[in-house]
Amino acid sequence: MQNPTPVRGAVRELLTQLDPEQVLTDGPGYQQGIRLWNGAVRHRPALIVRPRTPAQVQAAVLAARGNGPPLSVRGGGHDWAGRSLCPGGLVVDLSSMRQVVIDPRRRTAIVQGGATAGDVVTATAPYGLCPATGTVAGVGMTGLTLAGGYGPLNGRAGLALDNLLAADVVLADGRLVTADPDREPELYWALRGGGGNFGAVTSLRIRLHPVPRLVAGLITYPLPRAARVWERLNAFLAAAPDELTVQSGLVSGPDGSPALFPAPVWSGSTDHGEAAISPLQRLGSPLSTQTAPMPLAQMLRLNEQWAPAGRHYAIATRTLTRFTPGATAGLAEAAATRTSPLTGIAVHHFHGAATRVPLESTAFGLRHDHFVVEIVAVWAPGDRRASHHRAWADATSAALAPHALPGGYAQLLGPDAHDQAAHAYGPHTGRLSGGQETLRPRPRLRPPLRCPPPGTTHPPSAALGRPMARNRIEAGSRVRREALHHARRAHGPRTVPMDAHGLPHSRNSRTNRKEPA
């Protein structure tokens, strides 16, 4: 492993404060640190630091600041583009900080920065509580929460970020601060939807919900009936209660051919679950139907089979306001032309409580009903047709663009999706960039390299990427600079009644009325 002068200086400094097995430039621990969910990522940092405490995270950030190597932070290691590993730089690997502490009386959890969604769900289950999380267990809870967090409880509990009560953050100047509504309120606002641009988050305090069991499953329909099924699904979801969130998309059916699926999750009383889900079994003639009561942990494990760690992935995304005929035709064509039977499309459902959070209260830029289309090209290691698989994802994204909103969910955007990134934060781009004088330390950290897409051979751009332990979006970033010229769309503030949890009160949801503070 190459050990350039800035990294040698950082190593010497850190070895005076950390154990040798925490300061890694090679060996088994280093190799473990560079293995990510996406096996296509081949980024090699010069140094991996594996802190065990917030003070050690501070030491790593200060070592990078003082010696000059670019810096990134690795949480769950699930970002498809590998932006948690900065080539030639210093990586703060939080995988040794995965503790989850539950306060069942207050229905909150303290979650360390390296914990996965699965860690949190496992810790909360004995208390009959659930976090608002994503759809798989392996994703890092911190990265998921800071970016947004679409998942099975969106309708009932809002996005993961809507349940963030406080965060401990190491800023780029090495200070450890707590961000909540009273302390560092601007940073607290920016963390909820601004992504990992503002510092190394060492812990979160999140709200939990009394959901001991779900009714969930998977229903598949033949691809030739996709347009009709999506048309009926569109009408059904327009009136769906908060307790019912329905992911849909395209996967390989029982016989291996592409099939359309709705994957419902009911988070209300299990006594009403089957009745709530049954209309989804009558959208056409299903190929298969599998629904049952289950805990959230089981549902997340079942979803892991569709996207296991180690396969190669390329992801693109578009955001739809509804399933128009043009959009469903584009999705069906994508399924018919996919380049691998492992490839699929997941469509995430945003509705209910998530839509009633006032737009201006967080940095998340889209608060009306919509669907996030996650276009996932998947292939096995050793498959030499990687460029064909990536081209399929890009072509699918291009086909959906005329039917989609101009931005995209920032967590899924690739490093080169500049046109979409410019709109990703909606009306908040100016505040995120313009607030830099408030959030920026002096002197500021050298910006990190923006990591290239997996498998590319060109050197990384000097433009900034998302994965950095810094406390603002750098105005010099090429992507952010483009964003300053866009995303000034007007969204008037709304006054919304809030419940005892700080979530918008639902007129229709039994769940929100039942839950005590």
UniProtKB/TrEMBL annotation:
Residues in FAD-binding PCMH-type domain copies: 41-211
Pfam family of the protein (one): FAD_binding_4
Region (Disordered): 420-517
Keywords attached to this entry: FAD, Flavoprotein, Oxidoreductase
Required co-factors: FAD
Family matches, as InterPro entries: FAD-bd_PCMH, FAD-bd_PCMH-like_sf, FAD-bd_PCMH_sub1, FAD-bd_PCMH_sub2, FAD-linked_Oxidoreductase, Oxid_FAD_bind_N
GO molecular function, one term: oxidoreductase activity
Stretches with biased composition (Basic and acidic residues): 471-485
PROSITE patterns in the record: FAD_PCMH
Keyword Oxidoreductase: yes
Keyword DNA damage annotated: no
PANTHER family in the record: BINDING OXIDOREDUCTASE, PUTATIVE (AFU_ORTHOLOGUE AFUA_1G17690)-RELATED, FAD-BINDING PCMH-TYPE DOMAIN-CONTAINING PROTEIN
Family named by the database record: Belongs to the oxygen-dependent FAD-linked oxidoreductase family.
Protein known as: 6-hydroxy-D-nicotine oxidase
Organism of derivation: Streptomyces spiralis
Lineage, highest ranks first: Bacteria, Bacillati, Actinomycetota, Actinomycetes, Kitasatosporales
